[in-house]
Design brief:
- The chain is about 75% helix and about 0% strand.
- The protein has helices spanning about 5-15, 20-45, 55-75, 75-100, 100-125, 140-155.
- Helix 2 packs across helix 4.
- The longest helix is centred in the C-terminal third of the chain and has 26 residues, at about 100-125.
- It starts with 6 loop residues before the first helix and ends with a helix.
Length: about 160
Amino acid sequence: MDAATRPIDRWFASYSGDHRDATNQAIHVFAVPLILWSVVALLWCIPAPGTLFRAGFWAGLAMFAAFLFYYRASRRLGLGMAAMFALLGLLTHVLFATLGRMPLVTLAVVVFVVTWIAQFIGHRIEGRKPSFLTDLTYLLIGPAWVLLKLYRRLGWSY
């Protein structure tokens, strides 16, 4: 399949079209990874009785499912997101061990709410609605789009 016709390229083109303003892009580069972490942290705190991995089981399952989505779209992107998930999982594991379940839930909720407010401010500045309001798949595209910006800065292809 020609690289220009890959579904991931169409997703990125559409997502980029909703994120042209430099301020909105900067907000997204900051906020999207924090939103991703907050979701991982919240899922981390959901107990999974009867498993070997009482804390982190649901987060691990979600990260693995998301990894499969990214890897299917682009191997290099999938591997980059796997590295990102590993870092987020490690950070969350340390925070869970240090803070405990409820303080981590509180922190994750605060980060989630504040960063979503920032996202909506960015879209207000942009004058465009968030992409996920047209298709929920864009909730997965956002983190990959931020990673893509890093890949481009490093001169890497995806």
